[in-house]
Design goal:
Elements lengths: L1 H4 L6 H5 L11 E5 L17 H12 L4 E7 L2 H6 L6 E3 L3 E5 L4 H21 L2 E4 L4 E4 L2 E3 L3 E5 L5 E2 L3 E3 L4 E6 L4 H14 L4 E6 L4 E8 L2 E8 L3 E5 L1
Parallel strand pairs: 1-2, 6-10, 11-12
Antiparallel strand pairs: 2-4, 3-4, 5-8, 6-7, 8-11, 9-10, 12-13, 13-14, 14-15
């Protein structure tokens, strides 16, 4: 298992248990854009893209509440967003959501730091954070943490990694949980990522999908019980 390779399998649950479940009264909403996004060819400013305008409008409409935005868009829209965190599905859907919570960022910081130090010490490859794009076919994702081994045949560019990472970590929140565990999980498995780690904050558990003899197996670890099953 690659999580063990980067020194994290035994510590994921331990680190995770240091953080409390988000408050039950946290409100989340989903904004579905029904209008087809058209890209203007005359503006190079990220703030001028229709997709970003729509996402900003949604955020204002929710009055500070957390949101997950699905917009009909093009791959060109995705790249023109530049510094704005977003993901792109090959069906022509741009996915954007509200900023991460304090709980999410503390856990992200600790895991990224530990993994980076271990990988650098043993010269195993690269560990990158959530603002670096991973290209999987026509999909564009920004996993919370990605590990790419030194022998990985994929290609690094200034803005993205083209190929299949060795390990991805997703830290789930109430608003992103379904999207991460269904849409992204399915695509990650289709592209045969050897190990996929979901740190499920709402359910207080760690879910690890890993390839074994060509098939995915799933291991769950929580404060209450542990289980392993074929996927």
């Amino acid at each position: 298992m690659y999580a063990a390779t980067v020194g994290q399998a035994s510590s994921l649950s331990k680190n995770f248990s240091n953080y409390r479940q988000a408050k039950k009264n946290t409100k989340t909403q989903t904004f579905m854009a029904s209008t087809k996004i058209k890209t203007s060819s005359t503006s190079s400013s990220a703030t001028a893209t229709p997709a970003l305008k729509a996402a900003t409008a949604a955020a204002k409409a929710f009055g500070g509440q957390r949101y997950l935005v699905f917009l009909e868009a093009t791959l060109e829209d995705f790249y023109r967003l530049q510094e704005q965190k977003a993901e792109f599905l090959e069906q022509g859907i741009l996915v954007m959501h509200s900023p991460a919570t304090l709980e999410h960022e503390k856990l992200f910081r600790d895991l990224l730091t530990e993994m980076h130090l271990f990988v650098r010490q043993h010269d195993l490859g690269e560990v990158l954070g959530s603002r670096y794009t991973v290209v999987l076919g026509n999909h564009r994702f920004e996993p919370d943490i990605v590990f790419i081994s030194i022998n990985n045949p994929g290609k690094f560019t200034e803005l993205e990694f083209i190929g299949t990472p060795d390990l991805v970590v997703e830290i789930l929140s109430k608003i992103t949980r379904d999207y991460d565990l269904n849409t992204k999980r399915r695509i990650y498995q289709q592209h045969r990522i050897p190990e996929i780690v979901f740190i499920d904050l709402p359910q207080q558990q760690v879910v690890i999908d890993f390839l074994e003899a060509g098939k995915y197996r799933t291991r769950r670890s929580s404060r209450k019980k542990k289980s392993s099953a074929r996927c």
